[in-house]
Amino acid sequence: MKSHMRQEMRLRDVIEVVSQYARNDHEVGLAVADLIHRGVVRLHTRHQRRRPSR
After folding, report:
1. pTM (two decimals)
2. Smallest Cα–Cα separation from 11: which of 53, 48, 46, 51?
3. Distance (Å, whole) CA 6 – CA 40
4. In a structure prediction context, what are the per-residue pLDDT tens digits for the chain, which is 54 residues long?
5. What is the Cα–Cα distance from 31 to 9, expressed in whole angstroms?
6. Angle between helices 25-38 and 11-21 (to 10 degrees)
């Protein structure tokens, strides 16, 4: 069984890697959005979401 090494990358790093293989900026945007949508790339925000107070 192969072990997958998880590496923390910034969104900028992901965009740079994808752009090496894409033909144009539109394709980069679609590929990055698809990776995020599929859950391959997860975004971590610095601020936690606040629940609305009642």
Report:
1. 0.70
2. 46
3. 11
4. 455 667 788 899 999 999 999 999 999 999 999 999 999 998 887 766 666 666
5. 16
6. 120
